[in-house]
């Protein structure tokens, strides 16, 4: 069971505002997911070195050759708001 | 660049500085997609695709050239290149970060454990390099009253991060390190080094401690320093500020501070209450890299000569002064030009030719470049033309004075000096002593007053007489020969 503080911190990092009752609800759900994943802990991994990637691929790289980009109107088609061919978002306080 | 090096920092305290430098790489396409990086003068969001826009379900692919450039930099900074490297996701939320995470490198960067030597007050100081890794740049925010616009063109540009050890002991050293690093990046051709355009950026960690204390003081992170001068000024201010706080019995708070250029101060931006929680984890869309040893050696063999090596070589190979070697190597194209002059010269005495090439390049050619606001890559004057001019001087076909005029013309027309000499009908200098002596005799005879003045000790009368002789020879006599012959003549008259 993960505690309420952890749930709140995860929500904060994900920029989600949770009500007190939601902390309870999602806490339970997250705990259930973690318990489920916990089954993996039972696997015997002695003698297996840790890996960062599931595929056995390495060195998948491309040559440095530019290709055409997309038209701005296509890219911005799903934007909640736009102006001057840019995405428009709430005021961000300039750092400094 | 010249900056007053005076650092008025309290000598009871020691300043400790480490720098994190970010440099965009000069690849043609972005880090993980094929959008062009040539967006400097482009309209917003014209160099964007679903990958750099951070759309769900897209697949990033590593730009091999960016990996190569990072390895080149790492080698130039004496780093080791581990065989295995991988990318990680660094998660945080900010409007300029399209995916909600930045693809970066966390625990296994492309390289680590190097160093960079700087010269400070006649001493060599070795600054450790912790790591050089590869990541991607963010989008650009355009701040307006009440809202912010996001231009995604910059997002996904290859960005290299170079982290130093906390080895610098003064703001001046930090600036010197930064300048040296920039010089290397430009030399090896991986970056433009333009701080004013933000393609090269610098953050600093700085702390102070009572001299003699081993433990490091609490550090602050300084951001927003956009020039070498800002780096030095901001760190001087911050060191002073920290010392004041400690002197007054206060404590330094671990925080991020921004440099306000026009006020000359740093101010709190963000207080660090706990370690940043970026929830790093391996990037599942990018398989790891196995860096082949033979590839690294191939890259090493192609690496351009570094500025320090070149400086030493110019002094050894061409017997140039340290001063000249420094100036010639400051800007790589100038050094390249110098070497081309020497290379195309068919001369026995290569050192003498190198010396002459250096002198003419650093005085006359640089003067012409400045006057015409041109860079050495833009001028019509070829290294071959300069070599040709030096040949004409060596053969005494023209005088030094004439050479300057010919150079002016060659600079604007791009013609070879010998063609200009031909075209203008410049006659060879009068080196025949008999002819010169005859002219001197005539001049002396016509200028009795000047001769008398000379006899009465007015030595500047000689200059007037030389002028007359030069006029008679239409500038085709060598001034030093005229002078010695004239003095000899005058002394005879006096005797
Ligand atoms: Zn793209």
Automatic annotation (TrEMBL), chain A:
Gene3D superfamilies according to UniProt: Glu-tRNAGln amidotransferase C subunit, N-terminal domain
The UniProt keywords, alphabetically, are:
ATP-binding, Ligase, Nucleotide-binding, Protein biosynthesis, Transferase
Enzyme Commission (EC) number:
6.3.5.-
- The enzyme's main class, written as a single word, is ligase
Q: What's the stated role of this polypeptide?
A: Allows the formation of correctly charged Asn-tRNA(Asn) or Gln-tRNA(Gln) through the transamidation of misacylated Asp-tRNA(Asn) or Glu-tRNA(Gln) in organisms which lack either or both of asparaginyl-tRNA or glutaminyl-tRNA synthetases. The reaction takes place in the presence of glutamine and ATP through an activated phospho-Asp-tRNA(Asn) or phospho-Glu-tRNA(Gln).
Complex and partners = Heterotrimer of A, B and C subunits.
For this entry, the protein name equals Aspartyl/glutamyl-tRNA(Asn/Gln) amidotransferase subunit C
Organism of provenance = Dictyobacter arantiisoli
Q: Output the lineage of the source organism.
A: Bacteria, Bacillati, Chloroflexota, Ktedonobacteria, Ktedonobacterales
TrEMBL record, chain B:
Name the Enzyme Commission number(s) assigned to this protein: 6.3.5.-
Source domain of life is Bacteria
Protein keywords: ATP-binding, Ligase, Nucleotide-binding, Protein biosynthesis, Transferase
Pfam families (alphabetical): GatB_N, GatB_Yqey
Protein's UniProt keywords contain Ligase: yes
Residue ranges occupied by any Asn/Gln amidotransferase domain in the UniProt entry: 336-490
Q: Which InterPro entries match?
A: Asn/Gln-tRNA_amidoTrfase_suB/E (IPR017959), Asn/Gln-tRNA_Trfase_suB/E_cat (IPR006075), Asn/Gln_amidotransferase (IPR018027), Asn/Gln_tRNA_amidoTrase-B-like (IPR003789), GatB (IPR004413), GatB_C_1 (IPR042114), GatB_Yqey_C_2 (IPR023168), Gln-tRNA_amidoTrfase_suB_CS (IPR017958)
Single GO term (MF): asparaginyl-tRNA synthase (glutamine-hydrolyzing) activity
Recorded family membership: Belongs to the GatB/GatE family. GatB subfamily.
Summarize the subunit comment: Heterotrimer of A, B and C subunits.
What is known about what this protein does? Answer: Allows the formation of correctly charged Asn-tRNA(Asn) or Gln-tRNA(Gln) through the transamidation of misacylated Asp-tRNA(Asn) or Glu-tRNA(Gln) in organisms which lack either or both of asparaginyl-tRNA or glutaminyl-tRNA synthetases. The reaction takes place in the presence of glutamine and ATP through an activated phospho-Asp-tRNA(Asn) or phospho-Glu-tRNA(Gln).
User: Which named protein is this?
Assistant: Aspartyl/glutamyl-tRNA(Asn/Gln) amidotransferase subunit B
Q: From which source organism is this entry?
A: Dictyobacter arantiisoli
Per the record, the gene is gatB
